[in-house]
Amino acid sequence: AQTVTQSQPEMSVQEAETVTLSCTYDTSESDYYLFWYKQPPSRQMILVIRQEAYKQQNATENRFSVNFQKAAKSFSLKISDSQLGDAAMYFCAFSLTGANSKLTFGKGITLSVRP
Amino acid sequence: ETGVTQTPRHLVMGMTNKKSLKCEQHLGHNAMYWYKQSAKKPLELMFVYSLEERVENNSVPSRFSPECPNSSHLFLHLHTLQPEDSALYLCASSRSLAGGREQYFGPGTRLTVT
User: Fold this and answer.
1) Distance between CA B71 and CA B92 in Å, rounded?
2) Which residues in chain A touch residue B45, judged by CB atoms under 8 angstroms apart?
3) Spatial distance between the Cα atoms of B108 and B5, rounded to a whole number of angstroms
4) Neighbours of A73 (CB within 10 A)
């Protein structure tokens, strides 16, 4: 079975600064997907970024980038130039490849942004 | 309406009540999911439907009964719930069950069992 661990329950960042959210996972598979989802207060959860395990290049989406360390089973999210709208819960998630693959989520981390 | 909608947004029910949660997706997706979100716990996948057929039931108690009449609608029927069932219930959809597919979430129903 796959597990996803987010050990930091809360983090805070100053507006315009950079913050890194940590995630580790455990799997015996070699091919899989990793995700970061964002859940703003009282708003819908949305996908921030996705990484395919067979790709060595780290995924980036504007101010969001990941540091994917496959051997260490680590998948951290870096948010650059933090904005007030980045304040949310962030969930790291894992899925296998294949035709019937569910998402396994971590507990999430609450990010606050200080003006 | 766009995306994934859920009704009601808030629900308070007694332990002997029967109620239903509704989810509708306007994205033309083939797969739909129910999740339970409790504080300080990972999202728990409850049920998965693909083309209206249930493909996963994660050992969910029988007091939760899902229904998927078509690929756009998903219901969660609730009866004789327990206080520990109080949580945010999220519905999601994806284009298919294939690994790596983005899931689109609804806003959730905040359920309180008294």
Assistant:
1) 12
2) 102-103
3) 8
4) 17
Confidence (pLDDT) at B2: 81
pLDDT per residue over A47-91, tens digit each? 999 999 999 899 999 999 999 999 999 999 999 999 999 999 999
Fill in the amino acid letter for A49.
I
Q: In this complex, which of B45, B90, B106 lies closest to A102 when CB atoms are compared? A: B45
- Closest Cα in chain B to A5: B42
Yes or no: say if A97 and A88 are a contact pair by the CB < 8 Å rule: no
**pLDDT tier, B1 (very low <50, low <70, confident <90, very high otherwise):** low
- Numbered residues of chain B with Cβ closer than 8 Å to any chain A Cβ: 3-4, 33, 40-43, 45, 48, 50, 55-56, 90, 92, 97-100, 102-103, 105-108
